[in-house]
Amino acid sequence: MKTLIKNVRIVGQADSNTHRTASILLAEKDNIQATSLLVNDQEGNCTVTDILCEEGKITRIEPSIPVTADMEVVDAEGAFAIPGLIDIHTHLDDQIGSFYLADTYRTGSMVAILNGVTTLFSFITESKEFPLSQAIENARQKAQGNCLCDYHWHITPINYSEEAFETFDSIVNQGFRSFKVYTTYKNAGIYLNYNQIDYLAAYLKSNNCKLLVHCEDEEVLMKNAGNYKYLNQAKSHALVRPEIAEIKAVQKILDICLTHQLPVHIVHVSSAESVELIKQCQKALPVSFETCPQYLFLNDEY
After folding, report:
1. What angle do CA 49, 86, 104 make, to 5 degrees?
2. What is the spatial distance between Cα 125 and Cα 181, in angstroms, rounded to a whole number?
3. CA of 302: how far to CAs of 143, 181, 239, 275, 292, in Å?
């Protein structure tokens, strides 16, 4: 099938030697496909052009492509081909505690590409039931043939024995280059203390990997939890978590990563002081972070 997209505005000049990706969403009956376009937007220009897609792949980019009888024509005047977004923090088709997640790879990726996201990262967490290699295979089987855009995973091991690090070598060689760890959730079996994270950071640096961290200090949380009776209620989630729990963990993790010069991403940051710590650290280290809508619009009164 050929689809000709007419009069679309490309951000910058199309250049097959660049590495910027622009997303174009094509609707074909019930099948939504995400395709990619290499563009260069260094000049900040918008070029009006035509794009020919064949079997979901871009084959021609020219100012005016002649229409033929075997083409479906889409008039995209006023629309833009924009850089495809990468969502590095999603949870798809997985179990968290006693809850199974609502989104599958198909439903999650459908929402993604309808909003210009062309690559998703989800998570693979080792468990006592499924060692890391088996957990990876399980995730691959769930995603294969079901995800409508590009995808990959961050991994969370729970076994950090000497033998486990030998397994890490194999996993890194397969292309898994981001490890997520937690400074809390000891009862769930995924907690690492700061010494363990420091040891892992040295390994990741030597293997050109990146670290993602859930930053809440376990000691602060456990001390504070004793002040509340009903920890299973939603409101208690905020009450047990004073800002200092996050701030302390963020500072510890930044210190570790500075020591090893290891790039790090801090997930769902919720306090202004943590943001300031990260901004200061960014002067000496590649540090990224994210937040969540509820931290921007809600407080513990809700």
Report:
1. 115
2. 10
3. 36, 29, 12, 23, 16
In Å, what is the CA distance from 237 to each residue of 179, 229, 233?
25, 12, 7
End-to-end CA distance of the chain: 51
Length of the chain: 302
For residue 156, which phi and psi values (nearest 5 degrees)? -125, 100
Q: Is the pLDDT of residue 20 over 70?
A: no
Q: How far apart are CA 154 and CA 242, in angstroms?
A: 28
| Amino acid code (one letter) for 41 | D
What band does 6 get if pLDDT is binned at 50, 70 and 90? confident
Record the tokens describing residue 28, joined without a space. Answer: 């074909």
pLDDT single digits (tens) 129-186: 999 999 999 999 999 999 999 999 999 999 999 999 999 999 999 999 999 999 999 9
Give the pTM: 0.80
Give the Cβ contact number of residue 170 at 10 Å: 11
